[in-house]
Amino acid sequence: MLRLSFLLLLALSIQSCKKPYVGNKYVPPIVLRSYSQSAQPPAPDYSNPNHWAALPGKKDMADSVPNTSVSNGQAQALVDVFFLHPTLYLEPGEDKTYPWNADVNDAVMNARVDGSTILNQASVFNGSCRVYAPRYRQAHISSFFTPDRKSGEAALELAYQDTKTAFLYYLEHYNQGRPFFIAGHSQGTQHAGKILLELVEGKPLEQQLIAAYVIGMPVPSTYFASLPICDKPDQTSCYITWATYQRGFYPANYKSAGFDRGQCVNPLCWTTDSTVISRNQNLGGITWKYNKVVKRINGAQANKGILWIDKPHVPGRMFIKMENYHVADYNLFWFNIRENVKLRSEAYLREQASGSN
Predict the structure, then answer these.
(1) Which of 69, 79, 286, 350 could form a disulfide with 179 if both were Cys (CB 3.0 to 4.6 A apart)?
(2) 193 with 215: CB under 8 angstroms?
């Protein structure tokens, strides 16, 4: 799941096998100095609230809701989510030194993270969970396709160590034995998967795990030793994954990226079977600007390791030419995800209550 060859397709929205894209915008490869020659920014201090994109105790974009049909329930939430954002480090730094990892003190970068992924993705959890989303020295997008693989892997490892440090800080200072979800997208899913392997699966901490939403890249059935794929809407102690593409489309590197061995949960029915689920079961997606809810936006089908969708039913849909909906993995199913988080939370709490009697 977490090899760079996979991430080339998943951290970017690839429209061809030769050029990297973010959404529909072509991002030319940036030639960075080798990792050993490039000064990296200082490590985050997770006792500093500014080094968290979201915390229950401060006002942030994860508090947002798209309309009045839902509300921010963090103050009453009985469970937590630890959320890891995807790659937003796309351009060279202002000083033109091209560091491999982003600076958590960069106000422009932080605003980009907060106004995109924290607003659109992390906020989906605020109905049932207290939301914790650390800032971390995310690896530059070039890390996923650079010929200098040693430097790219070093940058991703630095980013992972930050997320691991943040998770351990969360456990020690915030968690207080509460049940939790782990969630991520793209680069964030890479790091979330490693945290699950290293710190959760097969450890006492697994008893607190409600579920993991590891979205936006292939997860082979052999990746986890014992943590199962979620195949029921209310199943707990399991993981959920999908990567969204236009119906009928297979990525150019479908096999080399691992999709042929991947798992897929359909977020309209929360099972892994290949039944085509009508868009009538889609409770609503949200636009990227977070200013419009679109009910019944698209149907979906789990298909051989990827999620096929119908072209979204939005104004101007006839002009939509996208085949890779990576950037909308959460947005297209926002209300279904939100309801599923609630369902799994309630199921977990019932299981714990019955077990203690």
Answers:
(1) 79
(2) no
Q: Which residues, in sequence order, are CB contacts of 192 under 8 Å at separation 6+?
A: 84, 163, 182, 183, 184, 212, 214
Please, which residues bridge with residue 182 across strands?
82, 212
Domain that holds residue 73: 4-356
72 backbone φψ class: left, alpha, beta (φ>0; ψ -120 to 50): beta
Number of domain units in the chain: 1
Cα–Cα distance measured from residue 78 to residue 94, given in angstroms and rounded to the nearest whole number: 42
Q: pTM above the 0.70 mark?
A: yes
* The one-letter amino acid at 208: Q
Q: Pick the closest to residue 112 from 82, 91, 143 (CA basis).
A: 91
Q: Provide the residue-wise pLDDT of the chain in tens; the chain has 357 residues.
A: 433 322 333 333 333 233 444 444 444 445 567 777 678 899 999 999 999 999 998 999 999 999 999 999 999 999 999 999 999 998 754 445 568 899 999 999 999 999 999 999 999 999 999 999 999 999 998 888 778 889 889 999 999 999 999 999 999 999 999 999 999 999 999 999 999 999 999 999 999 999 999 999 888 889 999 999 999 999 999 999 999 999 999 887 788 777 788 899 999 999 999 999 999 999 999 988 898 999 999 999 999 999 999 999 888 787 787 899 999 999 999 999 999 999 999 999 999 998 754
User: Beta partners for 213?
Assistant: 183, 240
